[in-house]
Specification:
The complex is a heterodimer of chains A (about 375) and B (about 325). Chain A is α/β, with parallel strands linked by helices and about 375 residues long. In chain A, about 60% of the residues lie in helices and about 10% in strands. Chain A has two domains: about 300 residues, Rossmann fold (3-Layer(aba) Sandwich), CATH 3.40.50; about 60 residues. Chain B has a single domain, classed as P-loop containing nucleotide triphosphate hydrolases (Rossmann fold). In chain B, helix 1 packs across helix 12, helix 5 crosses helix 7 and helix 8 packs parallel to helix 11. The chains are: A alpha/beta (about 375), B alpha/beta (about 325). The interface between A and B is large, with 90 and 83 residues.
Amino acid sequence: MASRDLLSLLETKEIIITCGPGGVGKTTTAAAAAAITAAREGGRVLVLTVDPARRLADALGVAGIGNDVVAVDPALFAEAGMEARGSLSAAMLDTKKSWDELIARHAPSEKTRDRILSNPLYTSLTTRFVQSHDYIAMERLYELHATGEWDLIVVDTPPTRNALDFLDAPARMADFFSSRLLRWLIMPSRSGFLGIASKGFAQVADRILGRQFLADITEFFGSLESMYEGFVERSQAVRRLLSDERTAFVVVSSSELVPLREATFFVEQLATRNFLLACVVLNRVLPRSLADSSATEASLKISQDSDHLAEQLGAELKVDVNVAKRVLATMGESFTDLSVIAHREAAARANFSLGSASMVEVPLFDEDIHDLRGLLRLGEFLIAKD
Amino acid sequence: MIGPVLTGRRLLFVTGKGGVGKTTVAAGLALMLAEQSKTVLACEIDAKGDLSAAYEIPPVGFDPVKVTSSLSVMAMDTEASLREYLRLNLKIPIMGRIGPLAAAFDFVATAAPGVREILTVGKICWEVRERHYDVVVVDAPASGHIISQLAAPDAIAELVRIGPIRNQSQWMAEILNNPQATGVVVATTAEEMPIAETIELTQRLEQETSVEVAGIVVNRVLPERFGPREAAAFAELNSDTHRAWIDEHLPEGAPAVLEATRLATQLRRHRSRHLDVLRREMDPSVPLYYLPELFTRAEGLRMTRQVATHLAEELG
């Protein structure tokens, strides 16, 4: 089997999708992987974030990027101390705008397009409700990939369960548009009243939702009807792209129990869907030395012998012996506290099953990443060979 | 803030960015309230089983399971919620037996925006209205998603002009928008992104919903290890000048101990800087509560109990 370390993926794949639980640095990891590839490997690299929370702009220093692709200033690489061999661009997903563009592309006439765009249901569906991100995100990825402009697209996804929705969205979209229920429901829009086939359903729906609302739904999907084929075809193409060998998935997690449990779930689900899980990135790993037996012994000695040591330390640092004593005691405490967490996390890691994927561990940084320099530093860890 | 303190409300939505310990805070809060001789329902929205794990019980479903005599836990299931709704409000008992209910429900939920949200919030508000419990604590979805849930009754009222759903959404809005009854608790950690998201979320809650923020819980606050003199002494010791002394006088593994101490102090320093941002940006009437980082061997019930104890101290 070919090596699946992250560097070889970044060198060979066309699409890398990062996924995993929330709050583990997924967005930052995606941006860092893209940045380091642009810097070291060259080529045209794009990072696309589909997370409704707008974090990528912060991490990349590209303020207010919208639906358009924006190039990251090459001067920023120079400032970060690295001459970029390739180029880096970033894009975020504007759900509403992407839906509008999709409708405009598939609509058979301007009249149909305008009818859909002005339907209150459409507006609400595309702006207010989170699920609409899922499909459109994949659609946008497909489109960006199809331009052929990018050697590598790194995609950041929303946290776990949502990201699963997002993987299933193309298939669901296709199912939805070819479902019998939909056929039933739009029948009345042709005949002007609720068709016989949908009567039972309509009666229940009518009692819950009210007739007017039902009429709005009917009108909405009636207008969409002319576009079904386009939608179904397109969503099948998107689904094929996700399972294509040019695409690989990277699961990002921390070593804490709850995120790792979610990451495990994700690994299983990717396998079920026959998507290629290539690599697992564990962020914020505490130093290995915290589990070191000689360090543990040293921490005990430092806090236990502290009377004797404190005098020597006080003399060395020219501080009061009590200050020295407190420094030593605190060193012991700090080490013990952190090593409890390090052990807890090492145990959680040991129980985590990777399947055939490789694993990259990234140490806990004691500084926040808020610029390209920080992203590149993280990137170096991502591509480091053992 | 207009409403009473957090503990005086009957419906609490605990939200926050992923990874900040939102579920732990929700579980601890529910446990604390139950220990104050209130009957409490803790409800997990996204049914990942994390809330059950926090109490170390097998994954729960839509029917509440008792953890203690006064604390019950359930997981939201929108389809079960729909069935219950139809049975109780529209007297349609047969729905449960109709085969294609799941397909029809999926369809309606996909087609009609807000249906899932309204069924989720509806079930919760119904428990509050019927006073089955003194308090309902919701382990709500992460930041961005809670807005669409809390705004769902208003959104539905805009879309659906008549019919029972509209009436339902009105009494739900009355409960949600009443600060005497309902509050949002935002869990965060003192890290850059969670703090930024907390500030953004509280602003959006104010602009896009009528639900009040009852408090911010800052989780995993690191202890201040050093006083200023000790900090200076440690920084001096950790500089290269004293390498020889360290090698000679401290035991073999000492550099790792020094490194751990440096890491712990550095993290604490960064986090207090982020806390300053939070304090500066937040409406001063919204109370901030602090939970310490727990250096506990295992997660689960023991951690939940510790959180409950610390919350009880913080909330007085």
